[in-house]
Amino acid sequence: MKSRLLFLIGLFLVIAAAFFLYNRSNRVSAEVEIYASPIQAGCYIAASNDCRLHVDPFTINLATDSKLVLFKLISIETGSGTQRLIYDFRPDQSNPVPPIGNTYSPSLVTQDFAATCGLKYEISLQGQDSLDPYIYNLGLTGEITCPSTTP
Amino acid sequence: MSWKCVRSLILIFLVSILTVGLGRPPAARGAVNFLPSPIQAGCYLTKHDQCKIHVDPFTLNLTPGEKLVYFQLIATRIGSGNQQVIYDFRPDQSNPVPSTGNTYTPSMVAKDFAAACGQIYILNLWGQDTGDTTPNNLGNTEQFTCPTGSYFINMPMINK
To answer: Which H/E stretch holds residue B16?
Structure first.
């Protein structure tokens, strides 16, 4: 009787462990493959009523053996929460980046990004690599305040 | 070794610990951790009626182990004393710079900074790192004067 009880407890533990491991391996395969890619940015006044968001050079960290599908820069306006796409970037369809390695550093845009003077923003970098099922948030700046007037 | 000798050694040891402890500067918390970060800038004419402030590339010197919280460029107009933030910069919330080392060199903005022609300015670099309780003035320029745009007036006229 005692040995049967022990056998049943052991069986239960084995089944529970197997279930846990199966569940865990499934979850891992659906987890994010693209890695955190920090982003830093600021807002400046370029001319009267002309504010610009400047994003410092950043590097997108992809999973090994994956390619970049897309990345986006989104401005999030503080208060209203309005999200605006300010940069939508797509690599080559046939030969996406990176050709080698697992990082990609996009070049800087030449005019910086439009912004409204006096408003506050956060800048979000979102992206997806070829192993990801979704687009992920890769980095987010602190709250940036755009200047309101010419000094 | 005699007991007297051991006692003397213990006494010397305790005194030296106390001396080293007292001689140490106060804890860094609350003190200025951000080190001076020199800044140079000038003002130039972009159109006959438009001036811009140009800031040379600069490097933020942080205390080892600390991260950047933010930096700002502030233009002060001489005469009125009016201060205006012209650049507000924030690093990544989860992974702030620098990733390694204790310096950060921001990239240059593409369009330079707005300014009023004919005015005199001082430019300040303000910043805070994770070891600072308050922002600090890290560097400031001498006074510089924005041109008045006279080249438009002096342009030679062609009359046919």
So the answer is: helix B3-23
Query: What ipTM describes this predicted complex?
Result: 0.72
Closest CA in chain B for residue A141: B92
- Amino acid B39 reads I
Residue B114 to residue A46, Cβ atoms within 8 A: yes
Cα–Cα distance between A82 and A76 in angstroms, integer?
6
Residue B39 near residue B122 (C-beta atoms within 8 A): no
The answer to whether the pTM exceeds 0.80 is no
Q: DSSP readout, chain A?
A: -HHHHHHHHHHHHHHHHHHHHHHHHHHHHTS--SPP----EEEEEEETTEEEEEE----EEPPTT--EEEEEEEEEETTT--EEEEEEE---SSSPSPSSSSEE-PPPPSS-EEE-TT-EEEEEEEEEETT-SS-EEEEEB--EE---S--
Q: Is the separation of the CB atoms in A54 and A43 below 8 Å? A: yes
Which positions in chain A touch B111 (Cβ < 8 Å)? 44, 46-47, 50, 52, 111-112
What is the tens place of the pLDDT at every residue in A97-134? 999 999 999 999 999 999 999 999 999 999 999 999 99
Beta bridge partners of B90: A41
Nearest CA in chain B to A125: B92
Nearest to A44 by CA among B5, B18, B52, B153: B52
- Number of Cβ within 10 Å of residue A19's Cβ equals 10
